[in-house]
Amino acid sequence: MVTREDFVARFGGVFEHSPFIAERAHDAGRIVEPLLCVEVHVAMVAAFRAAEANERLGVLKAHPDLAGKLAIAGELTEDSRREQAGAGLDRLSAEEHARFTALNTAYTEKFGFPFIIAVKGLNKDDILAAFETRVGNDRDEEFSTAAAQVEKIALLRLQSMLPET
User: Fold this and answer.
1) Which of 9, 85, 87, 155 has a 20 to 30 A CA-CA distance from 96?
2) CA 157, 71, 19, 55 torsion: positive or negative?
3) Which CATH number characterizes residue 86's domain?
4) Which residues are the active-site residues?
5) Contact 145, 114 (CB under 8 A)
6) For residue 47, what are the domain limits?
7) Is residue 98 part of a domain?
8) Cis peptide before 163 (omega within 30 of 0)
């Protein structure tokens, strides 16, 4: 059996800056060897969904703005840096960056957490279109959408770390 410490060390960052998700998944006894992507994801999502609303909000708030100041300063987690670069967000024109900054500000002011989208397979235009649509959602709808995107990001990260079967 994988120890709690080893599991958290390896998977504590799957949910951005929220190792408590990995801790709770392990503590619930849902982590069994061999570690397979789908099973680990199911266990971690269950821990995320069982967390109190303010804890889930904290997970959302732990995500960086897309193409935001952390990216510019080079202070993203390695996973976030790689994900944003894969979508071309590290190569925005000045106008595109200004649009992302304006949307980030409007979105965060409206919802109280950053815009979150699993960027794998998307380009900057796809992301901007989703951004512009989702900023019009109500808070409950957007909280649910953002949480679902966090779960998708976790799955994508786990797929790069673990075998499927």
Assistant:
1) 155
2) negative
3) 1.10.3330.10
4) 63
5) no
6) 4-58
7) yes
8) no
